[in-house]
Amino acid sequence: MGATPASRFLRTTGQHATIEPDAFTEGGYVLSIGGAEQSHVNLADPSDIFYEYLRRIGHVVDLAAPWGEPVSALHLGAGALTLARYIQATRPGSVQYAVELERELLDFVLAQLPLPEGTQLHPVIGDARAALAELPPDLRFDVVILDIFSGPEAPEHLACTAFYQEAAAKLTARGVLVVNVGDEPGLTLVRSQMAALRRAMADVSAFAEAGMFTGRYPGNIILTGTQGPWPEVWTAALTARGPHPAKVLSGVGLDVLSA
Fold first, then answer.
1. What is the DSSP string of 52-84?
2. Is the pTM for the entire model greater than 0.90?
């Protein structure tokens, strides 16, 4: 697309989505919804992730599946498909599904910000939980990424143990379930989602900017559910990869986030 911002009305929410060039990143574009920045894409280098919380999710994906090795991935919440682009750039041949409630949003993003050549992306329009149930019963994913809700607006039918159990049932033997939780000071949603995820998965970790765990600031915390014990080597790796300052909580360290 050119230097002029593009816009699309979203009938489901009644908001406008815009995509405009990022003045600070060559090849970068920003998707905003209702005037709030929602996603950043670097068309020139899809392996470059600008938003900190998405970079953290990318690091989790890197540990779950090495670079260059195709994976199967399910994205619940499509946005500008930043992580789908990242997986294709780092793991060509991956098979991915993306579920998005807003048909207009997904059509708008795909038209304005084309996916990297060779991307095998299957778009699914609908509610995340309903779409999960409608996927082929034998379909399994190495990575399931949930990036839908934040704060008090989290849909109850998604922010619950039953939904996480349904998502976990779609994982391969090595698969991980990654949940981005955007929250306000006090971390009420983070605490409830940590408890729900712990009931659905064998083990769970929390990964964020170190100051987020004080509960004093709004921001994002990445929760990762594994089907076996959390690999402690991942704690050191994620902490080292940042963005800095980074902190990972697992095991008894998660007690500070108990609901």
1. HHHHHHHHHHHHHS-TTS--EEEEES-TT-HHH
2. yes
